[in-house]
Structures are given as C-alpha cells and as structure tokens.
Amino acid sequence: MAFICGTCSREFTLPSAVLAKYPNWTPKQCMDCRDKPSPAGPAKAAKPKSKGSSVTRTQDLTTAEVLARFDGGPAHGIFTDGSSRPNPGPGGWGAVFVRDNAVIEQRHGADPWTTNNRMELTALIAGLEMAPPAESVIVFSDSQLVVNTLTKWARGWEGRGWKRKEGEIANLDLVKRAWELVQQRPNARIEWIRAHDGSRWNEYADALSTAHLRSEV
After folding, report:
1. Domains in the chain, please, with CATH?
2. 206 flagged as catalytic
3. Is 156 a catalytic residue?
4. Is 197 a catalytic residue?
5. Which of 31, 43, 189, 207 is most buried (CB neighbours < 10 A)?
6. What is the pTM of this model?
7. Residue 196 CA to chain centroid, in angstroms?
8. Given 92, 94, 111, 120, the catalytic residue
9. Is 120 labeled as catalytic in the residue annotation?
C-alpha cells in the first residue's frame, strides 16, 4: 500500500510487517521527512529549569556519563525505561537491578520498528524477569500508562477474557506477559518514577534504552 507524505507530497511505502503491527494506522510522513530536524524558529528567552528537565532530555548520555553526573533518587530497586524515535519508529529498552547503588544485573535491547509503549512494556518485562520471585523489590517505570495497566486495569481485563469496554487492548501480547510475571512475583511492587529528573538509576535505564543509537553503552 502506498501513502502520500503530508510534508513533501511524495508517495512512499512501508514494509508489510510494520503495517501488520499497527492496524488502522495511516502514516502522515515519509521517513525522510520524519527524520529531518525542525527548522529553527525565532529565539526564545530561556525558561527556568523545572522538574523532568535534566540534560538527558536532550542528550543521549552513556551509562558511564550518567553515573558521573547523577547521584539522586532511590539506591535500591529495578529501574526500567523504553522509547522510540520517532514514535512509531526505531526504539530501544533498558532495565537495571541495583542494591545500595551497585548494579546486580542489567539488560537492554532494540527493535527496528516499534512504539514508545511497546518499549516501555518490554523494559518492564525484563525488569520483572530480573526480580527474585521471593524478594521484596520495587520495579520502577516512568510510564504512567504501564504502571496503571499493571496495578489498576490488568486484573479486570483478565477477568473479562482480556477485553475492555472501550475497545481492543493495545500491545496485548506484552501486557499478558507482564501480568503473568506480576502474579509470579507477589513481593514485587510496581511504582511510577518521574522521567529525566536526575534520579541516577532512572537516568541509567534511559541510557540503556538509547544504547542502540551509540557505539558505547
């Protein structure tokens, strides 16, 4: 199937595997236009720095650079993060398990065509897989959607045969796998953490999730 780019007006196509992943999605731009930086606009006065505005919002730091720059936030737990650029587009995920600010285990990966939410769920799955089944541990995610899915909605969806009143459940394959792991680890607690707020291990998970963009993790 061919599409018309809303920016350059050229005809473009996408692989059938990509279109099958996202039924009813109509792309608005070709990849060439999506990857182009936006034209520079008029200069604006600098705004005061606010929560959620650490340097990692605009820079892809390595894990070593994160450790050198940040020391705030929880020192224990499992921290997960995922993203795609653009969305949908190439993406990555990362998860790190730490005790007393020491890395016990870490994992990361990438997908050539995905979405933010799929990468966030994949990261959380990896984090839950690292959690010892009998150990009390907090698994952190900076995606409120993922946290709410597993702490508020999944049990009801399962009880209704994995259906929801508003329509299909997005990323059901990953939701079901994550929910299975949640049930296998009753002592693991899933909590939201603010993104790009200087929390060392959330920033570290973010660096793992973007490792596919760099030559160095």
Report:
1. 2-35 (no CATH), 61-213 (3.30.420.10)
2. yes
3. no
4. no
5. 207
6. 0.77
7. 13
8. 120
9. yes
